[in-house]
Design goal:
The chain is mostly helical. The chain contains six helices and three strands. Strands 1-3-2 form a three-stranded antiparallel beta sheet. α5 packs antiparallel against α6. The longest helix is centred in the last third of the chain and has 26 residues.
Length: about 140
């Protein structure tokens, strides 16, 4: 299996993952290759090549219905990336970051830590709910 960072380093594959995430969030149970081709404006062979790489990395799953294939995001490998990144985000924050304009350095740092923790918790909860039976 390819290194997950090599897989997600490609912009087209990230675009496919984002599209699948957006469609899943909208309640879709899968996205056809033709829909991905149309949305991204890429050729069918290019999209198929990238979907194979994403399948091999277990980032997408495929459901076949007749001659059609419907792809869905499989977030578990991305959760592993998220788990790996979070310590760097928490420890490597710059207290002089302008996102905390008007706050003291310590308050801006605390706000950034809380914001990142909340985003990470939201992501983990959304994925947990998606894994519940009946979803």
């Amino acid at each position: 299996m390819a290194d997950i960072f090599d897989v997600i380093a490609d912009g087209t594959r990230r675009d496919i993952l984002r599209l699948l995430l957006d469609r899943s969030s909208a309640g879709e149970r899968g996205t056809s290759v033709s829909h991905i081709v149309t949305e991204l404006g890429a050729s069918q062979p290019t999209v198929s090549k990238h979907l194979k790489v994403l399948r091999d990395a277990h980032l997408v799953s495929v459901r076949e219905e007749g001659q059609h294939r419907y792809y869905s995001l499989s977030a578990a490998p991305l959760d592993e990336v998220d788990d790996w990144l979070v310590p760097f985000l928490d420890d490597g924050m710059d207290a002089d970051d302008s996102s905390g304009a008007g706050l003291t350095d310590s308050a801006a740092h605390a706000a950034e830590v809380v914001g990142r923790a909340a985003a990470s918790a939201k992501h983990a909860l959304e994925n947990a709910f998606k894994r519940l039976p009946g979803r």
